[in-house]
Amino acid sequence: MKPCLFGIVVLSGALAWALPAQGQPAPPAKTESQLLFDKCQTAYGELKSYRGVTKAMSLSLVNGSPNIYEGSARISFQKPGLLRIDGKLAGGGDFSILGNADGSWYRWPLNKNGDWKKVEELDLAIASMTGVAATAPTTIPSLLIQSRNAPYFGFSEEAKMDGEEKVAGQMCHKLTARSKGETTSWWIDKGSLLLRRIVSYTSEEQSAAQIAEVEKAMKKFPRPEGLDALPKSDMRFVSRIQDFEIEAINEPVDEKLFETPPMK
User: Fold this and answer.
1) d(CA 255, CA 205)
2) What gap in Å lies between CA 232 and CA 245, rounded to an integer?
3) pLDDT at 91 over 90
4) Confidence (pLDDT) at 205
5) Which of 47, 58, 64, 98 is nearest to 198 (CA)?
6) Domains in the chain, start-ordered, CATH in brackets?
7) Cβ atoms < 10 Å from Cβ of 206
8) What span, in angstroms and rounded, lies between the C-alpha atoms of 61 and 68?
9) Cα dihedral across residues 143, 123, 181, 237: positive or negative
10) DSSP class of 71
11) CA 118 to chain centre
């Protein structure tokens, strides 16, 4: 019996697809920490509902004096695509974010009369409140809606497993990434695989390295006449903390929270 030419061609093609191209090394296997980050993101994507509170704090030093900014966000989520966030701004005042089948909105004191403002997509509403609320409304909602901004919470390929610790009474995996600019740690609940805490801090050495990088970059741009050196500022970031209180998952959420707001 003569060999089937078609079968040989198909088999050759399958082998070529399955094997790495000649001279192209196979991608490196993911580390334990990278696999855990993937599982965490998947866990959020599989939730049917979520209720919880994020409390965020940012500390910086200006001329040696501490500046503390605190924000909070009460998060209610239910599939498919229902999200409500109500929180406190770092500078005082309240804000809200809403997303449902009819669209996306946000409100805060700088809107006219504090009224709801409609935006093109939910990501824009979240981004609008990120800085003024010390990132409180950003990390968890972005993960829940599988937003393109989900990497905002900074999962790093450089992170290493850093033992286990309890947060809010729950045993967590701790992962830590250290770079020239800052050190960040994540605490992921061993049971639910959801985030419990993120802490970033900058030592004096790391802060000096950040300033040096900025000054190096700025030298590429022309300076105003008479300015021989960059202005010096005794300001440095010290730490950012996000604590994630999980109240309930996969339980019914009051659907009235997601009703389309009246527009004026």
Assistant:
1) 50
2) 40
3) no
4) 63
5) 58
6) 44-221+233-250 (2.50.20)
7) 18
8) 9
9) negative
10) E
11) 23
Find where tokens 């509170």 sit: 53
Give burial (CB, 10 Å; 0-12/13-18/19+) of 116: middle
Please tell me the pTM assigned to this model. 0.78
Alpha carbon distance 135, 241 (integer Å): 10
pLDDT grade for 97, boundaries at 50, 70 and 90: very high
Helix, strand, coil fractions of the chain, as percent rounded to 5: 25, 35, 35
Q: Is the pLDDT of residue 10 over 60?
A: no
HSE-CB of 122 using CA atoms within 13 angstroms: 25
Q: Is the preceding omega at residue 80 within 30 degrees of 0, hence cis? A: yes
Using only the alpha carbons of the chain, give its radius of gyration.
24
CB burial of residue 53 (10 Å; 0-12, 13-18, 19+): middle
CB half-sphere exposure, 227, CA atoms < 13 A: 11
Q: Per mean pLDDT, which range of 95-99, 115-119, 146-150 is the poorest?
A: 146-150
- In angstroms, the Cα distances linking 121 to 100, 113, 125, 184, 201 are 10, 22, 7, 30, 32
Report residue 57: phi and psi, to 5°.
Answer: -145, 135
Amino acid 20: pLDDT:
52
117 and 106 Cβ atoms separated by less than 8 Å: yes
pLDDT at residue number 8: 40
As a whole number, the mean pLDDT across the chain is 81
Which ranges constitute the DSSP H helices of 77-190? Answer: 122-130, 139-144
Bridge partners (DSSP) of residue 71 are 56
pLDDT over 50 at 52, yes or no: yes
